[in-house]
Write a structure and sequence with these properties.
With 413 residues, this protein is of the alpha+beta class. It has 16 helices and 10 strands. A hairpin with a 3-residue loop joins β6 and β7. α6 crosses α12 and α11 packs across α12. The longest helix has 27 residues. About 7% of the residues have low confidence. GO terms for molecular function: phosphoric diester hydrolase activity.
Length: 413
């Protein structure tokens, strides 16, 4: 039986089913666990969480003498009420980029912790925590809904050592943003997000010396890595209670290509589902824009340009076009040269034009010196400047380029 109690009535040996309130305010990454560590009890009681649901079938019941005010419901009723509460708390209105960046950084940090634990448990042969995955996707979806550019751009700033985990967070966010552009409904967006979050779960079954190799893989090592979609698919099939069919599909088929040259099945064209086609685009974009042990990530706008060259054989053209619309031709973080000769970094997309984002100007090629950073909306009616072309960050070596567009010092997780 499930009971809702105040945290002051918790004792060791109780099984936490769910913590009430926003997942972002919870002191733990887990959504349910046995309360068997006194430190966890102290941490929970000192947090902002005031009430929790306990499962008396899996842990201790409330002591009769506690006289706690409790509410007992069937498990089905609890799940329904939690789902309803989460839906009611969703924030859907757009917020400015600068406002969402700080919040998105917290989401990234929390999501990274959760995904890291999911992969570690999968490596030990444990089942995927689907409730945790849903919570992560809810928070990411909320952030993307408020301002798509914030979390997507921050997730790109992963360190090489964080790649496997933050890649899952980034692909989840990209799937949600792309799904919104394609007009998917709420249930479909949730499925797309979960698929993005677990698409690379099979990498938990790969040998660490291959997965973390700092150089180019040998043919034999690459053959091993190519088994990760099927390995992840098997893991998801073994999850108690089952996993969303979309997640199963994307996990298995996100490396398929529309020309049939992908793996593991060599599917082509309409043999590949819409979600798997989405997964292919999102997976590649985050991979090529991220720093890896063996190479630095490409500039976002350069990545879009190169992906456009591959689109006919690798990606579904309609899905790729929608992807570009969701991010912009010059995604946040892109380094650009303006007609005026000034260098700027893209900080936000404009509703008026994909070619005229909001940029932060900070360098003059004429005076060969830094300028006081200044925001310029290139789509504004009276703006006389425009983008002349992309610039290669490696050629300029601006050490603070990420801080310029984000306002945050490095990857804040």
């Amino acid at each position: 039986m499930l009971k809702k109690i105040h945290v002051k009535h918790l004792v060791e040996g109780m099984y936490i089913k769910e913590m009430c309130g926003s997942w972002m305010e919870h002191p733990f990454w887990r959504t349910s666990f046995l309360l068997d560590d006194p430190k966890d009890l102290t941490t929970l009681q000192a947090s902002s969480v005031r009430e929790v649901w306990i499962d008396t079938d899996r842990g201790l019941d409330v002591q009769e003498a506690a006289n706690a005010v409790m509410e007992a419901q069937s498990e089905a009723e609890v799940e329904a009420s939690l789902e309803s509460a989460a839906a009611g708390e969703r924030i859907r209105e757009d917020v400015p980029m600068a406002e969402e960046l700080t919040r998105a950084a917290k989401v990234c940090a929390k999501a990274k912790q959760a995904v890291t634990s999911m992969f570690q448990e999968a490596r030990m042969g444990k089942a995927v925590d689907t409730a945790l995955a849903r919570k992560v996707v809810e928070e990411i979806t909320d952030s993307v809904t408020r301002n798509a550019g914030a979390l997507i751009s921050l997730a790109r700033l992963k360190n090489a050592d964080d790649y496997t985990y933050m890649h899952s967070v980034a692909v989840c966010a990209l799937m949600v943003a792309l799904g919104r552009q394609l007009g998917l409904d709420e249930a479909q967006l949730r499925s797309a997000g979960i698929a993005g979050l677990v698409h690379d779960l099979g990498k938990a079954a790969m040998p660490l010396e291959v997965l973390n190799k700092p150089g180019k893989l040998t043919d034999d090592e690459f053959a091993i890595m190519k088994t990760h979609p099927e390995a992840g698919h098997r893991m998801l099939l073994e999850t108690p209670g089952g996993v969303d069919e979309v997640a199963l599909d994307v996990c298995l088929h996100h490396h398929e290509k529309v020309n049939g040259s992908g793996y593991p099945k060599g599917l082509a064209g309409d043999q590949i589902s819409l979600y798997a086609k989405m997964g292919a685009v999102c997976d590649v974009y985050d991979a090529i824009t991220s720093n890896r042990p063996y190479k630095a990530g490409w500039d976002p706008s350069e990545s879009i340009r190169r992906m456009a060259e591959w689109a006919d054989g690798h990606f579904d053209p309609a899905v790729f076009q929608a992807f570009v619309k969701s991010l912009g031709i010059y995604p946040v973080g892109s380094l650009v040269r303006l007609d005026s000769g000034k260098i700027a970094v893209v900080v936000e997309q404009s509703r008026r034009s994909l070619l005229k984002p909001v940029v932060k100007v900070f360098y003059s090629t004429k005076s060969k010196g830094r300028l006081a950073p200044k925001l310029v909306d290139l789509s504004a009616p009276l703006c006389q400047d425009s983008i002349a072309g992309r610039e290669d960050p490696a050629a300029w070596q601006f050490p603070d380029i990420n801080e310029l567009w984000s306002g945050l010092p490095g990857a804040p997780w």
